[in-house]
Specification:
The chain is mainly alpha-helical and 83 residues long. It has helices at residues 25-28, 41-48, 53-76; strands spanning 2-4, 10-11, 36-38. Strand 1 (2-4) and strand 2 form a beta hairpin. The relative contact order is 0.13. Bound molecules: zinc ion (ZN).
């Protein structure tokens, strides 16, 4: 799996495991090259290889909720730069 650092586009690459992609299809059109970054396969292994997939999904969801709550808290305190 690859992730673009510029436009956050992600793409799965199942057929070219030996080829390292560096250019995002969207960004290369805007003359931005080398923005595509390979997501370490170990991250994929954690989410896909687990025998208890539900636990993994719950963990991710809870983490996102935590971030949301944290941002809400910061906003309430008037911390600048928080969406
Ligand atoms: Zn891109």
């Amino acid at each position: 799996m690859y992730k673009c650092a510029t436009c956050t586009e992600t793409r799965e690459e199942f057929h070219s495991i030996k080829i390292t992609l560096t250019d995002c299809n969207i960004c290369i059109a805007n003359n931005i090259s080398g923005s595509l970054q390979r997501v370490p396969s170990q991250i994929l292994a954690i989410t896909s290889k687990s025998s208890d997939g539900r636990l993994v999904r719950d963990y991710i969801r809870d983490t996102k909720e935590d971030v949301k709550e944290y941002k809400k808290e910061l906003t309430a305190k008037g911390v600048p730069g928080v969406e």
